[in-house]
Task: inverse folding
């Protein structure tokens, strides 16, 4: 049985329509992933425990989606040394500026790699993960090249 | 020996010049307090443990000062049921808007009570704590009345 | 007859759908409260008189909801020494940034404890009040623990 | 003895360097004015009383300068029916955006006329007052014409 | 025949639903007014000519509503010495922040008195005008007192 | 005698250190230019007259620098059909966001071409002018190619 | 056969409803144009090649519309010495502030001339192009005068 | 000879004081890196060529630092399938908000992983790279654990 390579966490199950974009993108690259609803604020212990177990389970990359005071990605980055990708969500007002700044303005020493707001960000979070995984999986590099070429062709066809 | 009534946490010892304003204000009301440097991101376990122990130690109110992706107050509020007051700091850019939004835009269920940015906020964080403590300590109510009157007189004298 | 413990003020009756979230949360904890429509700008005398009478009536915490140039919480904090919690509302434009900054950027000496914008803020304002009241009411501490556990369980069940 | 025509209020005596610009401009037009330090938050009763007495004293226009959660102009407008001009000050962070929004986003029914931030705003607040007073004093209209012409000439001379 | 006391200018006839609020408010005080569509950018000569003629026609106050790069109020203030009140409109994006800053950040020497964004601002622009006109018309002062009292009563009745 | 090809206008002579960057850039391309201090708000008639005369004088491009409620470029665009390039200046607060939005958010029908804030913007305003002039002057195209190549070489040399 | 004078590029075919405003405006002036979907990020080579070929094809002005991290106009300006006009689009959140700042805050040396957000910007981008083309085509100057006069008449008719 | 594992690109050599933080962090982990000054706008061809050659040279991660309209990270991500980490710089105004939004708001399909503004961001960019490299280098995982522990100890020692 193939191992989970990417864990996707979100602060609320209401965030699924956004996170779904990450899942679909990962699956289009054949990358096994799991989605977990856990909140930095409402389930802090389970969030910490889940993050701490990731390396042991063989997971390679974590994607965290959260809105408002989006502490999830930072808290996860504090509990694992895996690369953590944060998707800021526009769910609490201010067009998501609260989530963007909460996600990205991390103190030096605890890194979070942020992507854009909402669905485009969710797609790109998955692609960052694919690029990372491709470093040790040449078949993914090939698929990324195909993806880029197909994407370009779609635009060029108008 | 009198118990600590207010715990003041800050994410970095560099924040002390701001936090000092809370300490001085609390001391002017004769309220015993302690200052602790703990980071939601860099010392997550110790932060959680410290927050969880507060009620047992008889502490009544927690004040948390943090800048940037200011997760400290939210994480503390997730680990204790004490009233948590957050002071956003302007230490990572954007005039502290990052810290303000991170502090105040908490998800429903995990409350943080935020005050203004920097030193005025630090003074007011202490005063919120005094007002809370005064609910069960009439001598503090008297002192708050004196404080307000003296403050007004200072302005009226020009 | 049980006394009112939390007074909730709002600048306009149009704010009721938001404030209702505070009421429901307080009632779920069995906390007696009253809602009062009073405006810092349109009924300044009545607002001042109402705020000044609160301590005498045995009220413990005031919650103020206002939008735009949200002076209500600050004005109430100027007329009482009770803890004042401000809920900024998005009712006059700029996604409520006007209300957020008006509520939270208080001058040193007159403290307001702000929560997030709109409904999540209204729920959390009530929870800040509950945490304050729990300091002298152990049954509320127990209920807060239940609340946090149930909230976590709901998330963990997905 | 000539009556005070313009009352200038400010929330803190630290605001005097800005407010001085209003005073100098008014005096260049020969308009008798007084400066008063009063805070909407720290001296609420005196602020209300001062505002309520203005019409009886023959004052025609009120200028209010305040920073942060700049409630002064709004509170004064709630206690007098004179024209109230608000100068937002950059004294509490966010480049004065807090004061600008607090000053200008008044609820319908209680009008404040805002000017720009800081010293340019303070000069213009005085000029708004002069334009208002000129409606019933033709000598001021003549002086305003001179002012505009001299101002233009200064620019044209390079 | 009674003279026009307040001229209301707007940059586009699409702004009428907002400006209508000023008209209704002025009419409720029995103040004769006229509405004129003129653009600082698209009809610059007519705008200048209209503004320059206002004093000669006996007009006392000008209200200007404009969105985006809201130059109308500033340009009018450059062509008349009457008090000019600017209503920023949210018609070109950024929630009207463009219009707010364009209206209010005038250079020293050419004053514009700004009010809040949109309909509340339009109502208040009219009330600023009424307060100015009341300085030389005691019947308006009486009506303003009635207005404030009725407004307060409406809130107090809930 | 060679004609002026680019007119540079600024709202205040204090803006010269920024505008100097445009002048130096134009001169490095051998383009004859003139700098004129004129204010949309303080010298409206002279500004209009100057703008209206530009085409007749053979000027090809106008560059306007202004801060705050930066009406200059828009007003000039209303009085000439030449291409108008606006440089927003950070001179009145808000980091120049006021000038940026005032410059760029023009109503449809009166176009202003905006560049970035301050000195980089001033350099680029000149380069936009050079690119426009190069359309009918092949020697300028050659110089632009040299400029780009030298600029690249400077970076490549490190 | 007449040559293309204005090339319009957009990052995604979804941007066509905005770009259509540029096309219609150009056509109302009888200016031959072409619309091309090319992305700075997804088709970088084709974008560079297209931009580099423009001068050789006799194109005079390029208009680029893009949202989010709107790199298109800057990248095109890096590959041609034609005047490049950037239209920021509100397509990725933050009301288009991301696109506005990405479009306009170019480094010195690579100029982009930006217009306002969305449809008004698209119309004005075309008008900037017409003003540039009119420098060497007197019939366009005549049409611009007609356009301005008709536009003014439409406003004056109310 | 050991291969370069991380390439660090910056738009201008003035950015070196920030980028130096990335270099020092990488070196503290013993990771071989190179710093290259290349601009998306001023050296577009060399930037593309450099990015395209990275995979062939065995580089694993690219870090790009840029201010203003920060196109560098996006353009590099368009020319390589390596993970690209963007550091937004505060070098062109608006406190770096321009660079933050330009860096992070990428269209779906071309991913950039952004970190916070300035020096803290530069440190974290290096740490994101280390975490990525650690996926295939257990010695780095060990060093990351040491780094986190030492960082925590430093805080705990106060």
Result:
């Amino acid at each position: 049985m193939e191992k989970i390579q990417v864990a996707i966490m979100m602060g609320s199950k209401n965030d699924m329509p956004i996170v779904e974009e990450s899942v679909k993108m990962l699956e289009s690259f054949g990358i096994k992933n799991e989605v977990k609803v856990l909140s930095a604020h409402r389930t802090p212990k389970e969030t910490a425990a889940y993050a701490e177990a990731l390396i042991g389970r063989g997971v390679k990359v974590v994607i965290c989606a959260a809105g408002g005071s989006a502490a999830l990605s930072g808290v996860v980055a504090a509990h694992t040394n895996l690369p953590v990708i944060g998707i800021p969500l526009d769910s609490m007002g201010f067009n998501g500026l609260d989530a963007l700044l909460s996600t990205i303005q991390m103190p030096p020493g605890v890194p979070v790699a942020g992507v854009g707001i909402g669905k485009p960000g969710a797609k790109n979070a998955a692609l960052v993960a694919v690029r990372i995984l491709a470093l040790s999986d040449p078949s993914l590099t090939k698929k990324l090249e195909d993806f880029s070429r197909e994407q370009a062709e779609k635009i060029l066809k108008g």
Observations:
- The CA atoms of residues 41 and 71 of chain C lie 8 Å apart.
- The longest strand of chain C covers residues 61-67.
- Chain C has six helices and five strands.
